[in-house]
Design brief:
The protein contains 3 helices and 2 strands; from the N terminus they run ββααα. The protein is mostly helical and 84 residues long. It has one domain. Helix 2 crosses helix 3.
């Protein structure tokens, strides 16, 4: 992707390049959504909790506090499996 110094807007080579990038982005987003669903389901099974309840009760508050998804899942797992 090229940019010009004057306006800093990307100059795409052609419409095919834009279409290819759009398809790649769609694939990545789909993979991330499926990956998240698998992680949520697996964590919910380990905690013996409903995935929706787990998301609302645990993950959403952590995300609202500014933690990213990977850290939120790691924190939940650590808090559940570490000895008291």
């Amino acid at each position: 992707m090229k940019t010009t110094d004057s306006d800093m807007h990307p100059l795409w080579e052609n419409a095919e390049a834009i279409d290819e990038l759009r398809k790649e982005l769609h694939k990545r987003l789909s993979r991330e959504e499926v990956e998240y669903a698998w992680r949520l389901k697996g964590l919910a099974a380990l905690l013996q909790e409903d995935p929706v309840t787990l998301h609302v009760s645990w993950i959403q508050p952590l995300l609202a506090a500014g933690v990213d998804l990977e850290v939120a899942i790691a924190c939940i797992a650590e808090s559940h499996f570490l000895p008291n």
